[in-house]
Amino acid sequence: MPWLQLKARIAPEQAELLEELLLAEGATAITLQDAHDDPVFEPERGTTPLWNETVLTGLYDDLEGLEIMLERLAAAWAETMPEEPCPVIEHELLADRDWEREWMEDFKPLRMGQRLWIVPSWHEPPDLDAVNLHLDPGLAFGTGTHPTTALCLEWLDGLAVASELDGLEVLDVGCGSGILAIAALKLGAAMATGTDIDPQALQASRDNAIRNDVAEHELTLCYPEQLAAGHRFPLVIANILAGPLVELAPTIAGHVAPGGRLALSGILEGQAEEVLDAYRDQGLSMDEPQLREGWVRLSGRRPA
Ligand SMILES: C[S@@+](CC[C@H](N)C(=O)[O-])C[C@H]1O[C@@H](n2cnc3c(N)ncnc32)[C@H](O)[C@@H]1O
């Protein structure tokens, strides 16, 4: 059976309204994607980074009445947001495919460093003797396919290979799918705490922890404000974009114990100096940046 797809490019702050309207018209699935890999990193200090434009698509199994549906959408938009013109909504007929399975087929097991494999939960691990992290990202960020995550996973794997992760307590700021916190545990850390501002990320992290037989006492998941300011960790990792990393430098650096290590990711090459300065100002000694596809991972240490 073919599908009808409606698609609009829209400002991120208007996406929620259009999503509601598409759902009200009976969309079977809604997808939100960044239009470009081009985030607005510095919207304003203290606010969550946004992307300039979002691509919103709705999928319908009812192919009849397209014109009427578009008219109803335009009328509902005008009623709710009369001051803004209704976005241009394109339509397309799509041949029948198993959309969910196609996405899953694109996500293959990935090797990170020497020991670690990220294995989609629907795949068999390619190497049973490796450290295999079984992952389903759900609605959260963090599959390992993005360079920012891969740089962090390789850093964790490198520490494990050098036996510098064993028994440590790790903080993962912006845990997303939980990929970094769970990888740290599987590579030898004793305990981990993951924080995120997004409830769906905390849920995905919880699900992935269960999927990987992580015991409840090994992984604490909470909102950032629930973590005690004085709680210091020998290893802190944060993959959350340059703006918030700079903004949160006193808080994030404040969690690094004397002699402890820090890794920061989500930083574009041109932003590395500003982030380095922010963490040097907090008393950390910082290493040479590591670069991948225009993204940078920074690491450093708090003197003992
Ligand atoms: C780029 S994703 C990283 C996910 C995962 N840690 C990884 O490496 O793939 C960034 C995550 O940080 C979260 N986040 C953004 N700002 C945050 C903040 N101020 N404190 C905690 N989490 C934050 C987002 O909700 C998102 O889940």
The CATH topology assignment of the largest domain is: Rossmann fold
Please tally the β strands and state the result.
17
Helix content: 25-40%
Number of domains: 2
- CATH class of the largest domain reads Alpha Beta
Q: Tell the overall outline.
A: globular
Helical segment tally? 9
Quaternary state, please? single chain
Strand/helix succession: EHEEEEHEHEEEHEHEHEEHHEHEEE
Key attributes of the depicted protein:
Ribosomal_PrmA_MeTrfase, alpha/beta, globular, 4-stranded antiparallel beta sheet, Rossmann fold, binds S-adenosylmethionine, Alpha-Beta Plaits
Overview in brief:
The protein has 304 residues and is α/β, with parallel strands linked by helices. It has nine helices and 17 strands. It has two domains: 95 residues, Alpha-Beta Plaits, CATH 3.30.70.120; 196 residues, Rossmann fold, CATH 3.40.50.
